[in-house]
Design goal:
Chain lengths: ~150, ~500, ~325
């Protein structure tokens, strides 16, 4: 593509966030007036301002030197985000121990140069460290084994 | 002189073996929870509250205060080493601190943060001892009208946080402001943009947003390059301690940061947040090399760290002199006093002078302990960076995750962490810096609340902002900044923006 | 990892500090029983530092000693307490998870419009304490009684402001009820935190506030604020002197007060409810716990679970009234 992808992308992103908030205010919130502002007054005008910024940056994208956004590390990103997601889903159901271990492991295999063996070793060490610090030393009240695995 | 008597009484109390011991435990504990991102001093103090029942009131307050400013101290460590700010104020430190770490100057950054914090802590201790009572009058004179003006000044100043395109920086502030409005509207209680999720009714959690937009997005960026050498370790680690020139360069920022932080820390309604980044903005304006900011300027670490620490200490003033705890943490300390049978309030100074002055003197002793404790640790923290990134990464991920989860014990906040991690990464991919976003995020709710409340008081009359002398003065300063600085700054930074493509 | 050395020293430090309470805990586990056999969670649906958080921590300390199992406080703030309350409501009713919540629990359904009724979705276990509301004005305000205040407010050309924290919160209810009964000209200003409201009250930007004595005790003692009246006579003996609203000639404010109570999950058995109720009522005899309550101007309420249910029903009635005359609609 000829245009500056960074400008186009940023412009689109700002415009859509701006429109989301502005339209959300128009259709769902009382706007009011400057001297007696409703809940929608601030977000409406901020949204409009952001939309203008976004459009400006978008248009600028056709005039500036082409520039692309580079690579995205899909495999690593999915594993990393999956690690946090796993913790969020597991901590209240499977318990703190499986949540910590699963999260550590998924995060540990996310870099391209990670090996299964070292990931497993890191998982064991880090989980033990977290359990020692958070559960025992700091006494945070999370059950180690959750209700789905027969704990409480 | 009265001041000398007070200080003597304070020192003799604080230097009792029991009090020194608990002061040490406090700062030690504080340093550690500060280093673990997310797990804040509030949660720790809450857990220790019942234990304080077995201590003397003075010892318990000294320990809890130590945890608080110790954690402020420790909080900059992960911000500098891994771009993981545990709270908003250390996100300012992260901007240049992390860049220094990437250049192999992590030791220098940590050391200057420790030194700056120590100077600021010492300064703030004397401010409290000398001027706690007059400063409490300042806190009282700030109503919504004045806070509104102050926040406007803060937002104007925060455009200086961006070191690339000014337009992108402003767009990021506005984006942050919009996300900061999610949740129940304070004035009417109307829910805004919660998309049916009741967990959002109190707004997006600040720690989750900060760690997501800084920390997670940074990890995602690092995954792009993940060879076994992480990006942090690629640069050779240079000397651990700051050189004479570094110290000379930091002296001014530390002094100005301490001053700004000490004054603004007294204002409970957002003063402490604004102080860290306005001191950063101030230094950037004053600097002969503003272009270095954002790329590892040592003043960009020294100033906000000093402001942050001075503010952390002077924020005790409203609680100690007016009995008004400005935040949850101070409320817990007030609670600790209540457990001991002491009513927190203005009478504490009169009825319990050894408690009041003892706690103040202990802050200085605590600061000495912190600097003794932290300077040797610098080597240890820097050594952590020698661990291959593939091993460091899971640790960063798990600490961020636990950190966010422990704030509210809420898995929902982890989804917020994820969302803002992705959003932050996207923004950075598109050439937008994330620091202005966070400032807008924290300030927009305050701005709106104070604006609307000021108008309720004035019956809808906009002139109220000019009728109040303090707010009129602040707004005049703001207008001057815009007029005098913004125009050349825009043209200058535009040139920079074209000169650099990637930060 | 290289942090190990510090970890050890820190853990032993914590262990050392905890030793005091642990020793007390062992000594206190006198009577044997089926429940509890493992740690019990006391959930506070607000952040640390709120007055009910401090109450709960002290209560948990006493219960840990008397029942021989640690009672652990967990803070789960969010949505005015709804997030935490909902989590307890949905927990298994096994007696290992309880909620501590002030009277605002009643406002969930009626003011916030979220679906949680304390009588249906939770099991009321015991009332902890009550505290009357105090009508507080800045020291600089030239009034010394409720009557003078009403005259002052009605005789002014400018607005007279009262502060409250949170729409529909008890303070808001009290102020609106006072306005309704007396017909005085008042305008409400909403605050995010009690600290902000108290600052504006001391500085004189607000003219009156209905507050628990706990929140303003220090300022009252120092003469920065004046107490004009209590909503009822249910206050601790060492509280600052002031007439009740009824004595000041205002009728109908007696029921307005703040209370704190403990709830179990939906469907908690009568047996467990009674055991916990008994344990809490016994804890309310503990001198240290009473002292913490008293410092907050709260007095212990040793009631049966049924008595607590009656209190909740009365509160529900008051909230209905508030909703009716302010025209508040659930969000």
């Amino acid at each position: 593509m000829q245009a500056n992808q960074k400008d186009l992308g940023a412009g689109l992103l700002f415009t859509s966030i701006g429109l989301f908030f502005a339209l959300g205010a128009v259709f769902g919130l009382p706007i009011g007036s400057a001297s007696s502002m409703g809940a929608g007054y601030f977000p409406l005008w901020l949204g409009v301002i952001l939309t203008c910024f976004g459009l400006g940056i978008f248009i600028k994208g056709f005039r500036t030197a082409p520039e692309d956004i580079g690579t995205v590390p899909w495999r690593g990103a999915l594993l990393l985000l999956g690690a946090i997601l796993f913790f969020a889903l597991a901590v209240d159901t499977l318990g703190a121990l499986p949540a910590l271990a699963g999260c550590c492991f998924l995060a540990a295999i996310s870099p391209n140069d990670a090996t299964w063996k070292s990931a497993a070793a890191i998982t064991v060490a880090l989980t033990a460290f977290c359990v020692a610090v958070f559960i025992y030393a700091l006494g945070l009240p999370y059950p180690m084994i959750g209700p789905w695995l027969g704990g409480r | 002189m009265e001041f000398v008597d007070h200080l003597a009484l304070g020192l003799s109390t604080a230097l009792q073996v029991e009090n020194i011991f608990y002061c040490f435990i406090g700062v030690l504990l504080g340093t550690f929870i500060g280093v673990l991102p997310g797990l804040g001093p509030t949660a720790t103090i809450a857990m220790l509250l019942p234990i304080t029942y077995y201590l003397s009131p003075t010892a318990s307050l000294i320990m809890l205060a130590g945890i608080y400013y110790g954690s402020q101290y420790g909080g900059s460590t992960t911000a500098i080493l891994m771009n993981l700010p545990g709270e908003v104020s250390s996100s300012v430190t992260a901007i240049d601190g992390y860049q220094m770490a990437r250049k192999g100057q992590a030791g220098k950054a940590l050391a200057i943060a420790a030194i700056g914090s120590f100077v600021a802590g010492t300064f703030a201790t004397f401010v409290i001892a000398l001027a706690a009572l007059p400063l409490s009058a300042v806190a009282l004179s700030f109503g919504s009208t004045e806070y509104f003006a102050l926040i406007v000044l803060g937002i104007v100043a925060s455009t200086a946080l961006a070191h690339g395109s000014v337009v992108r920086g402003m767009a990021m502030i506005v984006t942050g402001m919009l996300f900061g409005l999610v949740g129940a509207d304070t004035d009417s209680g109307t829910f805004r943009y919660i998309l049916g999720m009741i967990q959002l009714s109190d707004g997006l959690d600040t720690v989750a947003v900060a760690l997501g937009i800084f920390g997670i997005s940074e990890i995602l960026r690092n995954l792009e390059t993940s060879g076994s050498e992480g990006p942090v370790t690629t640069a050779k680690i240079t000397s651990l301690m700051p050189s004479k020139e570094d110290l000379k360069e930091s002296a001014g920022p530390i002094v100005r940061g301490s001053l700004l932080g000490a004054v603004m820390g007294v204002l409970p309604g957002g003063g402490s947040i604004i102080s860290a980044f306005s001191s950063y903005a101030l230094e950037k304006k004053l600097s002969k090399h503003p272009e270095r900011f954002g790329h590892g300027a040592i003043a960009g670490v020294a100033a906000p760290e000093s402001a942050n620490n001075a503010g952390a200490q002077t924020s005790f003033i409203p609680m100690l002199t007016l009995g008004i705890p400005p935040n949850a943490l101070m409320a817990l300390m007030a609670g600790a006093l209540m457990i001991q049978g002491i009513t927190p309030g203005p009478n504490v100074v009169r009825d319990q002078p050894e408690l009041f002055w003892g706690v103040i003197a202990s802050m200085w002793i605590g600061n000495v302990m912190l600097v003794i404790l932290n300077l040797p640790l610098v080597g240890l923290w820097v050594a952590l960076l020698k661990i291959p990134y593939r091993m460091l990464l899971p640790a960063i991920v798990i600490f961020s995750t636990m950190g966010v989860y422990t704030v509210n014990n809420s898995a929902f906040d982890l989804y917020v962490l994820l969302l803002f991690g992705v959003l932050g990464y996207t923004f950075r991919k598109l050439g937008c810096e994330v620091a202005p976003f966070l400032i807008g995020f924290v300030l927009s709710g305050l701005l709106e609340t104070h604006f609307r409340r000021a108008l309720v008081f004035s019956g809808g009359d906009m002139m109220t902002f000019l009728d109040h002398p303090i707010s009129a003065g602040i707004l005049a300063v703001t207008a001057l900044i815009i007029l005098a600085v913004a125009v050349p700054a825009i043209s200058r930074t535009r040139k920079e923006a074209f000169a650099e493509s990637e930060d | 990892m290289s942090q190990a050395g510090f970890l050890i020293s820190r853990r032993s430090v914590i262990a050392g500090m905890a030793a005091g309470s642990a020793a007390a805990m062992v000594a206190g586990s006198a009577f044997a029983q089926q429940w509890p056999t493992r740690p019990v969670t006391m959930l506070v649906p607000f952040g640390p530092g709120a007055s009910n958080d401090i109450f709960t921590r002290q209560l948990s300390e006493v219960l840990s000693r008397s029942l021989g199992q640690p009672f652990v406080v967990e803070n789960r703030p969010g949505a005015g307490g709804f997030t935490g309350a909902l989590s307890v409501s949905q927990s298994p009713a096994d007696g290992y998870r309880f909620l501590e919540m002030p009277s605002s629990v009643v406002a969930f359904k009626k003011v916030m419009g979220v679906n949680l009724d304390p009588l249906v979705d939770l099991t009321p276990v015991a009332q902890l304490a009550t505290s009357p509301g105090g009508m507080v004005v800045p020291a600089s305000l030239p009034v010394s009684s409720v009557k003078e205040f009403i005259d002052f407010a009605n005789g002014r050309s400018q607005d007279t402001f009262y502060g409250y924290v949170g729409v529909g919160a008890t303070q808001h209810q009290m102020a609106e009820k006072f306005r309704k009964i007396t017909g005085v000209k008042l305008k409400g200003v909403n605050y995010q935190s009690a600290a902000e409201a108290t600052t504006d009250l001391i500085a004189g930007r607000l003219h009156v506030q209905f507050s628990t004595i706990a929140g303003v005790r220090g300022q009252l003692d120092a003469g920065q604020l004046k107490l004009l009246a209590y909503t009822n006579d249910n206050f601790t003996p060492d509280s600052p002197k002031a007439p009740t609203m009824a004595e000041a000639g205002i009728d109908g404010m007696q029921g307005s007060q703040v209370w704190w109570g403990v709830f179990g999950p939906k469907g908690l058995s009568k047996e467990l409810t009674d055991q916990m109720n008994a344990a809490i009522n016994k804890a309310l005899d503990d001198a240290a716990f009473i002292a913490v309550l008293a410092k907050s101007g709260a007095i212990p309420a040793q009631k049966s679970a049924d008595g607590f249910i009656d209190t909740i029903k009365q509160e529900a009635h008051l909230v209905d009234e508030f909703v009716a005359f302010t025209g508040t609609t659930p969000k």
